[in-house]
Structures are given as structure tokens and as C-alpha cells.
Amino acid sequence: MCFILGLTGGISSGKSAVSQCFKEKGIPVVDADAIAREVVKPRTPGLSKIIAHFGSSILTEERELDRKKLGEIIFNDDKEREILDNILRQEIELKMDEELERLKREHHELIIMDIPLLFEASYESKCDEIMTVFVSQKTQLSRLTLRDNISEEQALARINSQMPIVDKALLSDVIIDNEGTIENTKLQVDRWLDIFKETRFSN
Asked: What range defines the domain where residue 201 resides?
């Protein structure tokens, strides 16, 4: 029977780095962010719905979604962010479920569900365990301002648009401390995999 590990974390917590650790070991990952990008490509129903609500001003000259412009709207308006979430949630979840079922048919022992808004989307019931990648808000702010070249105020608005990372950690089965080096993070992932394999073998 396939084991489903839900992987989540806050913005700029380093969840993608942990996801990459699993990929490097040949473990399949269903990436919600990648799927979210797919459902808003040009000429998709998802993008059409976004344009219908937010207008064509959120498009680039190439008629693609301008994520920066859309982000400026939704990270400063809870109501607009909720509308966007409702527009995309069903299509994203449908594609994620399709990918998960495909991987299950391939009889993988372990599948990672990489979902930034795992708890917000109530996806925890589909997972056997939840792993949260944790850092302090100070670290989040520092990494996010540097990564996206934005002000602390803008970064804080994006952080506050998500469920607090502390709350996610409290609801999780496993916590990966990503305050240190990538080597330390990889060691934690390796340790979890060792325990997982030992437990599966003993059962």
C-alpha cells in the first residue's frame, strides 16, 4: 500500500529544498505549485476565469498571467485572495488527484504531496503523515525580501496571507528545522526516510 506524505511550510521556509531532497532520491513528488502554474496558462479555463474577475490588466503583453501584478492585488486584499483561491482550488485539486492516482497505479511505496496551502485547502485527510518545513518569521522575512527584492512590509503581507507556520507545525507529524545549512536539512530528511523504511519493513 502506498504511503502519502504531505509536505508543507510557510513562504520562503525552504519547502522546495526539502521537496528536491526527495526528488533526488527518486521519490515521486506531486507539486501543487507546478500544477497551479499549469492551470493558468494561456487559453486555459483557469486563466479565463481570472481575467473575468480581475480584468486583462493582470496579463503581460504576451497575454500570459502577470504574477507580480496579481500578487500586488491578492496579498493586500483578503477578499480578492479568497476569490482567486476559489477560482483555482477545484482545478488544482482535480489535477493533483489525477497525478496522485497515476502514481499509485505505478505502485510507488512513497509519494510526496508538496502543497504550500495543505491545511488551508483541507488536504490533510488525504495524507498519511504531514511534514512541515519550519523557520522563524525573522528568517522568512530575510529570505523573502532577498529572493523577491521586495520591502519588509510587502514580505510581511505575503507571510500573513498564509496560515502561521507555527500553527502548521503544531498540526504536523514531522517538523523539519530549516534554519541551518542545507546539509543539516538533508540529514533530517534522511533520518525520516530511515525511520519510514524501518517501520515499513517491520510491518
From this structure: 1-28+108-203
